[in-house]
């Protein structure tokens, strides 16, 4: 493409963006920046002034190809090879200092280790402020140091003292904020970054337009104009902030509207958002806030009203009555004191907020984000080792909680095994801050482009060698292969494939594109129950190992370093007693667990922010995943499934078979990562069978925050999670905590559409569907749907297995539509007929970014999410609602066009092989 054409195309795009109220798109490509640099060098060029602005203020840093061109040109200016009156050598050094690693570090090392002493000293000054160095960079410094280079020694001595951190300004003692109520009740990340706008997440300014509503954005701007000396604090009133998906884009949007610029030379990257919630911040969201150096505050401004005996006073529905202890109404001015760790309204102390200002969080705030601390610690360790000195205490020491005589929960055991940098021989308990090695990492497709951006910004080019395996999915964009997907997904897959991940789509087109749900793939490639898994989705909740859903940045950090940092969470132990009734499905046990827990603890969710250690020993990984997956909706930090030896071996054999299928399809890479996982699985199976290392169990004297015993005898009918869209108390809507028995609906609630799919179902659910259809035809002579039924199997493996076992043929018989991979849909479905749709494996309606039910529909689904607008949006006359239930309830609801009665349900599932569970009698706590 001709030089002038490249630039003119960019100008044309700028004009198009102006019509949308947008600034020029940040530049990440070398071709365009090369043209811009040529125009800067030509002092008579008509585009020179604009080109200078683009070069200085609108180029993405890190390892983008544009950053490479920018760094090279700045080097020319510093060496005097190019003269640009607007960019002096001193300014060129300043620009390099804001480029965050990669080519900029290479240039700075060239200059610092060069022959011009004056330039070398200036380059060294900048290098001393940088932390995004990798092995190739530190190897150059080490070589120069060992050769007696004085500048190299000076840089390394600075690193040893962590001057890149100590010379930063201290965190302000007082931070003034003005409040903005984003909503009453839980604020989901869907409100902050809607799933149907996922395609625009990597275009930060454009994506920022979708946060909450345009009216809310105007209110925030008005508050900023009225209070120019204050930060706007976004609040979830009488709810939790940031529940739902693990979206960096949600925090990015909050920072874009309420934070501050990370650098004057980096476009649309803001940091330091301040958020609050009556019930605190969702654990995943809080981690993402830390990534950006922000502040998350548990406001506790509404508390339970108590009677004279100290017991909660309840309303007619049995819910505790809340009373306001202090107001955070929009426009309230508050003061955060970071030294006293208190929140004030004027001189009035409101609440202690120490948890928001731990020593580690204070470091994140000071450094502008957690990445800088992670990389800073690594560079300090390198420097001290090279100098042969003890590491000076600069950073807050890791908190090490060790309680003599107290056993370990399962998560404590896993963290102790994988911890790095802890005191030798010390056994750590919950509350300890730990750096851990990560075994498995997952990146999903609607956040993957952001993960790629984060990897570029931290100058990472290859996956850490200590990661056992990593996967890039294509499931969130599986439903519709539209222009947005065609533009984004191939580019993402190429980047991740080059980086070293196993990718769902092969950039070279060698193997067939896979759209398997990411959590299902991660569950298969996790081949050790002692593993730590990090994934770019809140449903990264494996039934082997302990898995943490994470934002795209934390995923990038895990991919680049093979590590993650977090406190060891407290655990809640969940065990079972009694016997499942023959007509119940395991999904009902999952929902009943949540309902029984809330009942046992007077409405308090003891799962929130903690590990659920669930003793499901008799279920294989596929089936147990239904429970661990739902723990995201329980607001748990993560979950661990305690399994019997024989069951775990069976699960690992299933995993091996599925990994082998991936290899047979050509998905392994040149490092044979997938074969390596099979080898590790074989080793683990041998350890279990020989008794050398049985399946993971907690110690008998482990300490739990709480213990929940689920009584299976009490589960008498199917249980449904209801969004309760018309509850008079707005804070009670869309919470996942309203679990109702089937009889509540009286057998007459109209159902407009059914959905079977998402990560909550396994092959058994598809077989249940096939069995029910055969039964209904036998009983009624035909199968007639009174509401559409959309079916999206989670994986291709399931489809292949159903075909081999004859069940897919049954589904085809009753379907009116079957996906065709050779001709995928190019547009989202907007209308549904009363028939069965067999959709492509993937997330489909559960994600809600491509396919949706018709506005205002009442949907009965096996999904995970019931948030407003997720599966179904409101119409002008009716609220859309997504009720979540078991597969047989969904099937019967679409056949009837309404909720079934309990008698209709029991009759319909007679003889059906539902997912059964019986408490383990073999699992003795060790």
From TrEMBL:
Major enzyme class: lyase
Known EC number: 4.2.1.3, 4.2.1.99
Domain Aconitase B swivel per the UniProt entry, residue ranges: 180-408
Highest taxon in the source lineage: Bacteria
Alphabetical keyword list: Iron, Iron-sulfur, Lyase, Metal-binding
GO molecular function list: 2-methylisocitrate dehydratase activity; 4 iron, 4 sulfur cluster binding; aconitate hydratase activity; metal ion binding
Gene3D superfamilies named in the record: Aconitase, Domain 2 (3.40.1060.10), Aconitase, domain 3 (3.30.499.10), Aconitase, domain 4 (3.20.19.10), Aconitate B, HEAT-like domain (1.25.40.310)
Domain Aconitase/3-isopropylmalate dehydratase large subunit alpha/beta/alpha positions: 413-897
GO biological process, one term: tricarboxylic acid cycle
The Aconitase B HEAT-like domain, residue ranges: 9-165
GO CC terms in record: cytosol
NCBIfam families: PRK09238.1 (NF006690)
Name under which the protein is recorded: Bifunctional aconitate hydratase 2/2-methylisocitrate dehydratase
């Amino acid at each position: 493409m001709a030089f002038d054409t490249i630039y003119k195309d960019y100008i044309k795009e700028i004009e198009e963006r102006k019509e949308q109220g947008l600034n020029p798109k940040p530049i990440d490509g070398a071709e365009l920046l090369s043209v811009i640099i040529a125009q800067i060098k030509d002092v008579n060029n008509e585009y020179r002034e604009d080109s200078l602005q683009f070069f200085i203020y609108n180029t993405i840093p890190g390892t983008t190809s544009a950053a490479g061109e920018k760094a090279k040109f700045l080097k020319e200016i510093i060496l005097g090879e190019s003269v640009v009156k607007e960019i002096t050598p001193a300014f060129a050094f300043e620009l390099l200092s804001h480029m965050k690693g990669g080519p900029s570090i290479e240039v700075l090392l060239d200059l610092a280790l060069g022959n011009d002493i004056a330039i070398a000293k200036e380059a060294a000054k900048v290098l001393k402020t940088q932390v995004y160095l990798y092995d190739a960079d530190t190897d150059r410094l080490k070589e120069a140091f060992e050769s007696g280079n004085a500048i190299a020694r000076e840089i390394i001595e600075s690193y040893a003292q962590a001057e890149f951190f100590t010379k930063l300004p201290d965190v302000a003692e007082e931070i003034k904020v003005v409040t903005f109520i984003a909503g009453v009740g839980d604020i989901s990340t869907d409100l902050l970054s809607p799933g149907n706008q996922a395609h625009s997440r990597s275009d930060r300014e454009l994506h920022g337009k979708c946060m909450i509503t345009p009216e809310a954005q105007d209110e925030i701007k008005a508050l900023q104009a009225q209070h120019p000396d204050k930060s706007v604090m976004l609040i979830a009133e009488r709810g939790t902030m940031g529940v739902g998906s693990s979206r960096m884009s949600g925090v990015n949007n909050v920072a874009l509207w309420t934070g501050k610029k990370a650098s004057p030379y980096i476009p649309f990257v803001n940091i330091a958002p301040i958020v609050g919630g009556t019930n605190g911040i969702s654990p995943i969201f809080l981690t993402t806030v830390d990534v950006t150096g922000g502040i998350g505050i548990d406001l506790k401004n509404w508390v339970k009203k108590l009677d004279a005996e100290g017991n909660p006073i309840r309303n007619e529905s049995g819910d505790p009555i809340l009373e306001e202890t202090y107001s955070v109404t929009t426009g309230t001015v508050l003061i955060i004191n970071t030294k006293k760790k208190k929140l004030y309204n004027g001189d009035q102390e409101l609440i202690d907020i120490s948890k928001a200002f731990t020593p580690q969080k204070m470091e994140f705030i000071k450094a502008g984000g957690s990445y800088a601390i992670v990389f800073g610690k690594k560079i300090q360790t390198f420097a001290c080792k090279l100098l042969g000195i003890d590491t000076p205490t600069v950073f807050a020491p890791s908190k090490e909680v060790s309680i003599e005589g107290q056993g370990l929960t399962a998560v404590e055991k896993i963290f102790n095994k994988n911890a790095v940098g802890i005191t030798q021989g010390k056994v750590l308990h919950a509350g300890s801050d730990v750096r851990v090695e990560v075994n498995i990492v997952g990146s999903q497709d609607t956040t993957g482009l952001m993960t790629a951006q984060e990897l570029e910004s931290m100058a990472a080019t290859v996956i850490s060698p200590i990661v056992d395996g990593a996967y890039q999915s294509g499931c969130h964009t599986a439903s519709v292969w539209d222009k947005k997907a065609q533009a984004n997904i191939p580019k993402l897959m190429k980047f991740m494939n080059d980086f070293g991940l196993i990718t769902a789509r092969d950039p070279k087109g060698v193997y067939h594109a896979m759209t398997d749900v990411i959590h299902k793939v991660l569950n298969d490639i996790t081949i050790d129950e002692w593993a730590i898994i990090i994934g770019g989705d809140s449903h990264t909740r494996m039934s082997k190992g302990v898995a943490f859903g994470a934002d795209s940045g934390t995923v990038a950090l895990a991919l680049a370093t093979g590590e993650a940092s977090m406190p060891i969470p407290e655990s809640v132990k969940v065990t079972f007693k009694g016997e499942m009734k023959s007509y119940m499905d395991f999904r009902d046990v999952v929902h009943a667990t949540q309902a029984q827990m809330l009942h046992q603890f007077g409405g308090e969710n003891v799962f929130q922010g903690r590990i659920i250690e669930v003793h499901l020993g008799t279920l294989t990984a596929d089936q147990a995943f239904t429970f661990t997956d739902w723990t995201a909706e329980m607001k748990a930090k993560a979950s661990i499934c305690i399994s019997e030896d024989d069951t775990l071996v069976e699960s690992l054999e299933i995993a091996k078979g599925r990994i082998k299928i991936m290899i047979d399809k050509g998905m392994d890479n040149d490092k044979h990562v997938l074969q390596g996982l099979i080898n590790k699985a074989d080793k683990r199976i041998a350890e279990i069978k020989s008794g050398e290392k049985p399946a993971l169990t907690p110690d008998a004297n482990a300490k739990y925050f709480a213990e929940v015993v689920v009584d299976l005898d009490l589960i008498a009918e199917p249980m449904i999670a209801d969004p309760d869209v018309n509850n008079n108390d707005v804070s009670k809507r869309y919470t996942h905590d309203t679990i109702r028995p089937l009889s509540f609906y009286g057998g007459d609630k109209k159902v407009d559409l059914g959905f079977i799919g998402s990560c909550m179902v396994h092959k058994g659910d598809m077989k249940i569907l096939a069995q029910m259809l055969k039964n209904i035809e036998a009983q009624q002579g035909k199968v007639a749907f009174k509401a559409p039924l959309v079916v999206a199997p989670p994986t291709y493996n399931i489809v292949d297995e159903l075909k081999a076992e004859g069940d897919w043929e049954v589904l085809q018989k009753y379907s009116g539509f079957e996906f065709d991979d050779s001709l995928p849909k190019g547009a989202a479905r907007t209308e549904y007929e009363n028939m069965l749709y067999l959709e492509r494996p993937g997330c489909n309606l559960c994600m809600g970014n491509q396919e949706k039910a018709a506005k205002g529909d009442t949907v009965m689904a096996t999904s995970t999410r019931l948030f407003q607008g997720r599966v179904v949006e409101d119409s002008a006359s009716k609220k859309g609602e997504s009720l979540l239930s078991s597969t047989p309830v969904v099937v019967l609801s679409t056949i009837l066009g309404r909720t079934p009665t309990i008698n209709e349900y029991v009759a319909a599932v007679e003889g059906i092989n539902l997912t059964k569970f019986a408490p383990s009698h073999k699992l003795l706590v060790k």
